[in-house]
TrEMBL record:
It comes from Rhynchospora tenuis. Keywords: Amino-acid transport, Membrane, Transmembrane, Transmembrane helix, Transport. It is found in: Membrane. Residues 36-444 form the Amino acid transporter transmembrane domain. This is Amino acid transporter transmembrane domain-containing protein.
Length: 460
């Protein structure tokens, strides 16, 4: 198979339903990654995976680079990620046309690269990203509830961890939706919510920027070349995190076969939403607050001292929209964990809702959400971790591996520009990833004195 028969044989055993030659699908494929969706369902899933409240960190990313470099970097990452995801979709389509349908990132990488360690590398990075995003979603949703509670009851007794418990309980209930495909209506609502809160934040930023109470606009960068360089690479790592998802093969797996060409439409839908949300939030937030913008622009609109810089109703509605979308994001990024669990615990020869499969599903998914909720309560310092996750997790999976897989599987001629374009992007983003990881970890260490386990506030 593709010149690699020894490993292909092992991969068929590992992948079960991932290989079209398998007669019996494993439960992870049969139940969690049901292939029943349309291209627009995949577009809803992909938009939820990429366009989330991290869009509110984009003005902060521009703060580390300034107008020219910031918008240039945003545009480069926009086109590079679209290009990378399109190529990965073509690789998946090509494999399917050869009778090697893959529905898991880890098995796609292991099959093409022919290396057992690659399987475990991808599953480790992917699991780290997905669990980290699930934890972050619970944490930020709890923070949203705390913001609303504190506004209504400034001296109320409830702490951040109480709200994290509430969010975790809601997600435990929602996590019992059995498959990725069953989230399609939730993810349509998620798409509308992200458009809604982005519009509210943009209006709030333009209003704040024109207000007499707004801070003085200062777009200057650090006077130290060393600090400027590290801040720029940290900002690029944030952009990688914001544009990353790491689960495109699993999303494409939800498409009813044949999937060829459908993901291209889903990508166009997703990137249309990305264009309007990312650029409007980045430009309006940085214009309004300049070098004083917070890592979450909503906090700049609600300063600790002085009046709010946007109407209370607008801020409240934006927080509610963010809260609701965070629930959808937590569900989407849990699907890989659920697929792994059910592949090893469920029986695909029995019904999805049979007692044999239902009881383990309820127990395992409940335990997973309790773990994520506990970690969110214990480690409430989300802001600095975003850049680290982007550099260490999203850059390898979304900026490097898709191009490597394309060059290895499609094998474009070295005389063609696409081969060298892919190689150049891989080299550039490998360097960016390494430097971004160093600068992000450096900032994490510098801010460590603010971190406190089970803190009552989210540290940015």
């Amino acid at each position: 198979m593709n010149g690699k028969p020894p490993y292909a044989s092992l991969n068929e055993v590992q992948s079960g339903a991932c290989n079209a030659k398998s007669d019996v699908a494993d439960a992870g494929a049969t139940f969690v990654l049901q292939s029943k969706g349309t291209w627009y369902h995949a577009g809803f899933h992909l938009t939820t995976a990429i366009v989330g409240p991290t869009v509110l960190t984009l003005p902060y990313a521009l703060r580390g680079m300034g107008w020219a470099l910031g918008l240039t970097s945003l545009t480069i990452v926009f086109f590079v990620t679209y290009y990378n995801y399109a190529l990965m979709s073509k690789v998946l389509d090509h494999c399917e046309s050869q009778g090697r349908r893959h529905i898991r990132f880890r098995e796609l990488a292991a099959d093409i690269l022919g290396s057992g360690w690659m399987f475990y590398f991808v599953v480790t990075v992917q699991a780290t990203i997905n669990t980290g995003v699930s934890i972050g979603s619970i944490l930020l949703a709890g923070d949203c509830l705390q913001i609303m509670y504190s506004d209504l009851y400034p001296d109320g007794p409830l702490k951040l961890y109480h709200f994290i418990i509430i969010v975790t309980m809601v997600l435990i209930l929602l996590s019992q939706l059995p498959s990725f495909h069953s989230l399609r209506h939730i993810n349509l609502a998620s798409l509308l919510l992200c458009l809604g809160y982005t519009l509210l934040v943009v209006v709030g930023c333009f209003r704040a920027g024109a207000s007499k109470d707004a801070p003085r606009k200062d777009y200057s960068l650090s006077s130290s070349k060393y600090d400027r360089a590290l801040n720029a690479f940290s900002s690029i790592a944030i952009l990688a995190s914001v544009f990353g998802n790491g689960i495109l093969p699993e999303i494409q797996a939800t498409l009813a076969p044949p999937a060829e060409g459908k993901m291209a439409k889903a990508l166009r839908l997703c990137y249309t939403v990305i264009f309007f949300t990312f650029y409007s939030a980045a430009i309006s937030g940085y214009w309004a607050f300049g070098s004083q913008v917070s890592s979450n622009v909503l906090e700049s609109l609600m300063p600790d001292s002085g009046p709010s810089l946007a109407p209370t109703w607008l801020l409240g509605l934006a927080v509610i929209f963010v809260l609701l979308q965070l629930l959808a994001i937590g569900l989407v990024y849990s699907q890989v964990a659920y697929e792994i669990m059910e592949k090893n615990s469920a029986d695909s020869t029995q019904g999805m809702f049979s007692k044999r499969n239902l009881i383990p599903r309820i127990i395992l998914r409940t335990l997973y959400m309790i773990f994520c909720g506990f970690m969110a309560a214990m480690l409430p310092f989300f802001g600095d971790i975003v850049a680290v996750v982007g550099a260490i997790g999203f850059i390898p999976l979304d900026f490097i591996l898709p191009l490597l897989l394309y060059n290895m599987e499609i094998r474009p001629s070295r005389r063609k520009p696409i081969y060298w374009v892919n190689l150049s992007i891989m080299v550039i983003f490998t360097i960016v990833g390494i430097i971004g990881a160093v600068s992000s970890v450096r900032k994490l260490v510098l801010d460590a004195n603010q971190f406190k386990l089970f803190s009552n506030n989210v540290v940015d």
